[in-house]
Amino acid sequence: MSLQRTALRDEKNFSAAGEVTGAWLESHDPGERKFLKIEQLILENGETLDDLTIAYQSWGTLNEQKSNAILINHALTGWSDVPAWWPKMVGPGLPFDTDRFFIICPNVIGGCQGSTGPSSLSPDGRRFGSRFPVLTIRDMVLAEKRVAEYFGIERFLLSAGPSLGGMRALEWAITYPDAVAAICVIGSSAVATGDQIGTASIQIRAIKSDSNFLGGDYYDAAQGPIEGLGIARRIAHLTYRTELEMDLRFGALGQEDGSGRFQVASYLDHQAQKLQKRFDANTYIRLTEAMNTHDVGRGRGGVGAALSRIKAETTVVAIDTDRLFPPRLQREIVELTPRARALEVISSPFGHDGFLIEVERVGEIIREALERVI
Fold first, then answer.
1. Over the chain (374 residues), what is each successive 10-residue block's mean pLDDT?
2. Are strands 48-59 and 102-106 parallel, antiparallel or unpaired?
3. Separation CA 88–CA 325 (nearest Å)
4. For 61, which of 142, 222, 271, 288 is 20 to 30 Å away at the CA?
5. Domains of the chain, first to last
């Protein structure tokens, strides 16, 4: 399904939800999503999720030995439809080659595109809302492990992902060291930084300050915290790109319509509106909180001790202009991981979003990582 078709369907879904949430809801067209039921998941904090659903999409064919599987871990606002958010990466002859491999991408638990999350119906028939439990990166990986078990996949050739997806790829290699032959961590880190947490906390505050947030229980209201979510996205997007790009593209230019608005403000409005039509405010909070608590060394004797557990061949990718996940964070992973290769540094003017834009170079790195383990 094309990115344009996905966007049009998501916009229709948003309108049908009455501008309360951009989440995929049970009455919506499932598109290419498939659904897997999990009886129970015991979370890191001891709480349980019962009768949960994982939405996923897959491409290619799983061989008889079930030895040709690749796991793609999407980023914060990504979802299971990889070709829609990571173009030119999945398909025949592409880096994730569907002629050779079985590629699967689940929507994370806590998500809003088919997997059980705050916008989902709970067992009592009401949407979870504020009752949805706090999640960690390890909880998300545990759910992904259940997906692997369903397919009978004992070992992925590669677990790869950017940003939040890179955090999960690391956790896969630490928690299940024999379950991945290789990992590719792109624009991510072993532990959240104070700068990341600070910026993310302001985004969460923006959503919770929206008068339509209603403590997280807004699904039956006429209006959801759409404005708060939009402000959060505007803040986040500035961290995804670079100061130089913003200045070269927009500078202090105003709109040509004489409205007195700056072009950069209009651009950020556009980014906010796109997310509002396909995302849920509660999910944004839950996933952002999980990223804030990310620390592979928690309960494991520290970051170095945790990374030393990794058996998988490890490819780490940095974007030289990334100000959200600066390259020093990827160097730390390389220095502390036994089978890490030399750091791959992509030069890009687009900052953190370079992983979405510099697909030719990212694709080369993925191809090389796969060739080393097949």
1. 41 54 96 97 97 98 98 98 97 98 98 98 96 98 98 98 98 98 98 98 98 98 97 98 95 84 94 97 98 98 98 98 98 97 98 97 98 95
2. antiparallel
3. 24
4. 142
5. 3-193+296-371 (3.40.50.1820), 197-290 (1.10.1740.110)
